[in-house]
Specification:
The chain is 28% helix and 24% strand. Helix 1 packs parallel to helix 2 and helix 1 runs parallel beside helix 8. The chain is elongated, with a radius of gyration of 24 Å. Strands 1, 2, 3, 4, 5, 6, 7 and 18 form an eight-stranded mixed sheet that branches. It contains eight helices and 18 strands. The protein has two domains: 199 residues, FAD/NAD(P)-binding domain; 111 residues, FAD/NAD(P)-binding domain (3-Layer(bba) Sandwich). By secondary structure, it is an alpha/beta fold. It catalyses: [thioredoxin]-dithiol + NADP(+) = [thioredoxin]-disulfide + NADPH + H(+). InterPro entries: FAD/NAD-bd_sf (IPR036188), FAD/NAD-binding_dom (IPR023753), Ferredoxin-NADP_redctase_2 (IPR050097). Keywords: Flavoprotein, Oxidoreductase. This is NAD(P)/FAD-dependent oxidoreductase. It holds the Pfam family Pyr_redox_2.
Length: 331
């Protein structure tokens, strides 16, 4: 989506008299929607902003989510949007350009929303290797997560492409779902230890650069090497480069760890006061159910933080009216 449409779903989002929200949630995936659900139930003034580009859109089903196993990802988000609307949480379609300290959330080609707290749940993007056929079949029979898709391709002839250091571990993991797994070294130079581990685990190793993933009849048929040889396979696993979509957090000055990922505490609070981040934007390994849990934890923390601020303001007003002072201990 190149430009914000700013279409509102779920009724007008509630703001305070001065137009300020309690919380603006950026990103309407599992983390953002679950946080918005809890905050809406806590009667906070919440709006969710979403560019409409979920990471798992290519996948036909999601797995590992209790009571939702096998549900299409788009259906989960549809259900989530309907649920937050019941609690007066608005959803605005559009892309956020930046967040200013204060906090003003500026949308591309749209309004500026003022808020007391921010939750960023913008996820990550998968950078796929430049191998013909990979992008075409991504999320169908070119896969990434064995926990998400391994059972659906169990006992079939599988491939793992050596596109990065994580591929070896991925191949050893994929072996749990099939006795017929071929590891294609592609551009990865295997250490003697990794080669031994793969062979000892029953994987076949095929050297040489992968030319393409062969697709025929709307499905993957095999892996073709640069020398023209073809190894028939029913599905392939590829370890993409995962890049967090954290420009909004970086722009606010949120601290990062040595690997370049935003640092948060166990409630998803960042190093910048009033700013939380949850889901794949801070954790590449978070599945849908994990991201939803992170959104829940963040919502509890955000509401508690707002509560402390509300009480402090109430105490200040009380003292102005009654001239009250803090009582001494024990009196």
């Amino acid at each position: 989506m190149s430009k914000a449409t700013n279409d509102l779903e779920g009724g007008a989002p509630r703001a305070a008299g001065d137009g300020t929200y309690d919380v603006v949630v950026v990103g309407a995936g599992a983390a953002g929607l679950n946080a918005a659900l809890l905050l809406g139930r806590a009667r906070r003034r919440v709006v969710v902003l979403d560019a409409g580009e979920p990471r798992n859109a290519p996948a036909s089903h999601m797995h590992g989510f209790l009571s939702r196993d096998g549900l299409p990802p788009a259906r989960l988000l549809e259900l989530g949007r309907a649920e937050i609307a019941r609690y007066g949480v608005g959803l605005v379609r559009g892309r956020v350009e930046r967040i200013d300290h204060g906090y003003d959330v500026r949308m591309v080609g749209g309004p500026v929303l003022r808020t007391r707290r921010v939750l960023v749940a913008t996820g990550l993007r998968d950078e796929l290797p430049d191998i013909p056929g990979v992008r075409q079949r991504w999320g169908k029979d070119v896969l990434h997560c064995p926990y998400c898709h391994g059972y659906e391709v169990r006992d079939q002839p599988l491939a793992v492409l050596g596109t990065g250091p994580g591929a070896v571990h991925q191949a050893l993991l994929v072996r749990q779902w099939s006795d017929d797994v071929v590891f294609f070294t592609h551009t990865l130079e295997l250490s003697s230890r990794d080669r031994e581990r793969l062979e000892a685990s029953g994987l076949r190793i095929v050297a040489g650069r992968v030319a393409q993933v062969v697709v025929d009849g709307g499905r993957l048929r095999g892996i073709e090497l640069a020398d023209g040889s073809l190894v028939p396979r029913a599905a392939a696993f590829v370890f993409p480069r995962m890049v967090p979509q954290d420009d909004l957090l970086t722009g606010l000055g949120c601290a990062k760890d040595d690997n370049g990922w935003i640092v948060t505490d166990r409630t998803s609070r960042t190093s910048v006061a009033g700013v939380w981040a949850a889901g794949n934007v801070i954790d590449s390994r978070a599945q849908v159910v994990t991201a939803a849990g992170m959104g829940s934890a963040a919502a509890f923390a955000i509401n508690g933080d707002l509560l402390e601020e509300d009480v402090e303001h109430a105490v200040g007003r009380h003292r102005k009216v009654f001239g009250a002072t803090v009582p001494e201990a024990g009196r």
